[in-house]
Amino acid sequence: MKKRTTLARMGSLPLLTLLLIPLTGVAQTLISYPGPLTCADQSVAARAVRTPKDAEVFIQCAYEYVQEMGFEEARRAFHEDERWKSGPIYVFVAELTPVPGASRSIVQPPDPSMEGKPWGFLMDDFGNDLMSEFYRIGSNFGGGWIYYAFTNPVTGEMEPKATYFRKIDWEGIPAAIGAGIYRRDLPGTCRSEEVNAALLDADPSETRLQEFVRCAAMELDSEGYFASVSLANDPRWRSGSIYLFGLDTYGYTFFSGSPANPIIGSELSSIYIDSFGGRNVLAAADAFGETFLYYSNHNPATNRWQRKVTLVKRVTSFGVPVLIGAGYYLD
Questions:
Q1: Which residues contact 174 (CB under 8 A, 6 or more apart)?
Q2: pLDDT tens for residues 142-184?
Q3: Per-residue model confidence as pLDDT tens digits over 56-90
Q4: Which of 45, 85, 283, 308 lies 20 to 30 A from 260 at CA?
Q5: What is the largest distance, in Å, between two alpha-carbon atoms of the chain?
Q6: Could you give all domains of the chain from N- to C-terminal order, each with its CATH number?
């Protein structure tokens, strides 16, 4: 993270970020206490931090690591060990002080030259000094969540960031130990340049598939029937072997981007039920709201039968339940 005197305006913020902006203009916080949770119960490394819960467990483990190993070893580890530093995920430590602009950086792996220096005033987009907000929450609640914008060390761009921290005594100095996740890791993030069929086709994974289907479901939920044309045909939602489909809960196709047969469209239609040994996978998807399915299907991009991983999500669009899904091929 680079030092900035003012955090740049984000322009068009994603849906989740907008939901987190309080009416008062002050950065909103969500307190989540670790309680009896210890790192022995759950542990997560930096490379695996993807969700808010992951961030909470990650910082609980970092907090315990300091208590167990001491300050110097913790400082070294936070800078050097892959367990604590991976891409945009890292552990930071910052001084908590009531004096505006005086909070010093203690551990800052992306920019060690900042360590020992005051952050100065960091006015966030929600109307207050960021470090003062850390002090307010740390002093009154012992830690929690803060939402703001900051420089992503991987992209070099200012991005909305949700940070979880705990208050810690660092060599006699009241401090915050924390880590944050950037916009694309927050549920509900749907920037087209970050979530699209081409990226999923180039680098398929269950995590990317979840992002893709959830974003499509949000569009269907907000636009209703009118979204079906773009979901079936827009290049954002259709690339190579990646396409979206929508069914009703009886298995009848609502829309499909399948280049093989856009009329029948989905391998989850009732005529394909034998692919699952007679199991009613649509009923399961309807009951659970979001399900992964594993089966073999004809890949229109290769003209071969291949194993496929599909995610199906239930969404109610204008009062009508719809199962929207997509998948990627293996082999």
A1: 95, 96, 97, 138, 167
A2: 999 988 888 888 788 887 788 999 999 999 999 999 999 886 5
A3: 999 999 999 999 999 999 999 999 999 999 988 99
A4: 283
A5: 69
A6: 15-185 (3.30.450.20), 197-329 (3.30.450.20)
